[in-house]
Amino acid sequence: MADEIEDASRLYWSGKFSDCILKCEEELDSGGNPEDFYELLIQSQLATGLYEDAARTLDFGLIADRSSIRLSWLGHEVCLLTGDTLRATELLIELEENVLYRNWRYRDAANRVVQSRYMMFRREDAKKILDDQLTPATLLAPQDARGWLAVADLAIANNDYAMAADNYRKAIELQPENPEGHMGLANSFRPSDPDAANESLKRALAIDPEHVPALLYLIEDRINSELYEETRVLIERALAVNPHNSDAWSYRAVLANLGNSPQQELDCRKKAFGKWAGNPRVDYLIGKKLSQKYRFAEGARHQRRALTYDPVYFPAKLQLANDLLRLGNDEEGWRMAGEVYRDDGYNAVAYNLVTLGNEMAGYTVLDQDGFIVRMDPHEAKIFGDRVLEILSDAKKLLAEKYQMKVAEPVFVEIFPHQKDFAIRTFGLPGGQGFLGVCFGHVITMNSPSSRATGDTNWESVLWHEFCHVVTLQKTQNKMPRWLSEGISVYEELEANVTWGQVMTPRYRDMILGGELTPVSQLSAAFLSPPSAEHLQFAYFESSLVVRFLIEKHGLTTLHQVLEDLATGMPINEVLGRRTGGIAVLDKEFSDYVLNLANQLASGMDWTKPAPEDLLTIESCKQWNMVHPDNWFGLRGQAALHLREKDWNAAQPLLQRLTELYPAHRAVDNAWQMLAAVARGKEDPDTELAMLQKSAALSATDVAGFRRLLDLLVEHQEWSQVTVIARQLRAVDPMGTIAHERMALAAESAGNYSEAIDPLRTLTEMDPADPAGIFYRYAVALYKTGDRNLARRQLLKCLEHAPRFQAAHQLLRQLTQTPDNEAANYDAGKTSAGKTSAGKTNSLHFVPR
Questions:
Q1: How far apart are CA 30 and CA 652, in angstroms?
Q2: How far apart are CA 736 and CA 158, in angstroms?
Q3: Is the C or the N end of the chain the one with fewer CB within 10 Å?
Q4: Which residues of 752-787 are buried (b: 16+ CB within 10 A; e: fewer)?
Q5: Per-residue pLDDT tens for 419-448?
Q6: How far apart are CA 211 and CA 818, in angstroms?
Q7: Rounded CA separation 440/471 (Å)
Q8: CA 391 to chain centre
């Protein structure tokens, strides 16, 4: 009998459902094990949409074995799909009574698996399910794949993807011909390893080319990639297997929504429900996909509908919590996340959100000009004012440029720990490589303290994300990611020549090597890039599309594109309408970018040498004799000379590089290398000039900025000190150097009002010389007329250095009338005092 059920199962696994149905019916007629064959027969009928047939089979099965909890559990699904919700509930009651009063009958592995699935349905404690049912099941029948599959399903339901993958592998070892294990493994890898997920998906489809769960996986992927025609083909394939598949019809409804066809959306949604009018998964799935398209308000409405059918449907409740948080409805969003966690303590997403919400309750809130900014309290004191300043500047410029009024408030949340940013943004840790995300009304960002991707210009990131606020709101979140990213990167560069992305030698290679994505397919470049480098290239290419549209068709055309998108029109239709056809745009843009690539350092020889050609100085010289002005040869030989500290040999090579490619942005550009030459030759004037050239190109060169500041201070070029210190602050606001140099430059120029903010900031940063900082802060406040605050700072100074004579003198003067005070201070301002450590203090301090 085991052989017969195994043969029938193989037919089911391979998608030969009609043959499996016949096989099961034959075995039942000949007296085969009723429970096994009735179960498999019902599963085959459900897989092909024969729901009424499945209901009749269920009746016969329960007549044959009324006490079968396997059939009761399966029957619950059958009754829901046929609209008999009352009987569906009755079957679960019978299942529970059977287990409660006849537990001895259900201690075998197969029945323990059923009990575990029922307990999962009831959202019972995951550890209890594992300990009471699944661990005993796998011990009783280690060769039965069902137990390992159930363990894996429990793990994946609780976001333990590693445990899930381990158990799916065990199931695959036992049943390599069962696509369920391969599909489970694909879902385990999906969040972290798309290549491994795709391999598992291919194995499932190799077993059954029309495996509906695999097709649904592909459908979701194609929707994400905006490959809607492919999506439609895949949906038809799924419906050819099961014409009533609820998920397939739900995805059709999503396509209709994205295609601005509201009546078709309603029709598809109705078919998704079928006879189960209260199926919460329908609206949950539609809403989830819309939210993934950044249509959070629509997504939230669908989740609320799902919860009217089933108020404790946790997937919808958790999705709604995330949607609300992304819409800025924090009070309800955090409350709902707390409700999910209260009722399902093993839900990792809910736990993470609740934990983060508790932590964020202690954040500082800055409220100004329509922005509500939440930050770590210490960081808010250091650069919170600068955050508000950038946001206000961006709002004024970009809202006017894109002809719209930004809906307020806009929420901005800045996280000092990358994991907190990831949890707030994605629900789970991960998301490395993301600096910030905008949802339309809410921006989440990594703080520069997180160092999520090394040295990053946080000011450019904030500008970039606020630009998303403008474009997403203008289009009502109905725009493809590539266009939103393209506009944001474009606007970075428009705001600051060191921000954004520009053509690089690597991008030149990719373009001329045929890796340019047509405009009509750019969404896929973001959603399935082969590497992180290709993703960055997608950002750059998208910004070039925006630049091309503005240069070729004007800013007004870009406004019209955004306005068309707001009506729900598909992006390729919009672009075709506004530019003379999408095929024409693809061709014209390709020509435009090829021209840009060829123009990069057009006098440079870009021929690539073999590795051995640049191995030694001699081989470099040989290469450069044949290939003068070669990018690789000049850099390679110069680097080898620098390694040998042969400054004179390196210098002419680097000078030639700056002549051929003066705008090279990389931190190891020729200007930086020439600065190293000058430093080696003890020529600070030339080093200063070279570092200034490099700083004019860079937004993130922390080491270069710091060295340049030292030289500028030595040369007392105070206006330039301020410029470079601000560049450093945009990368490293939590370091003291930028603030110290800004304060010093302002004091040295006698501009005490400009010194106040950096000095105040330094008092919050645990300075090495607190007495000196408080004293300088007091002087700046005194000079600008704030006597009371100046007095308080002097008292703080004297707490650290009670014998600081200059502080005592200024404090005495502050107790006098303003006229006498000014006269006495001017008379005594050159007097030096001694700190308790015996160090001389004067008005200005050059930092060590």
A1: 93
A2: 44
A3: C
A4: bebbbbbbbbbbebebebbbbbbbbbbbbbbbbeee
A5: 999 999 888 777 777 899 999 999 999 999
A6: 87
A7: 8
A8: 21
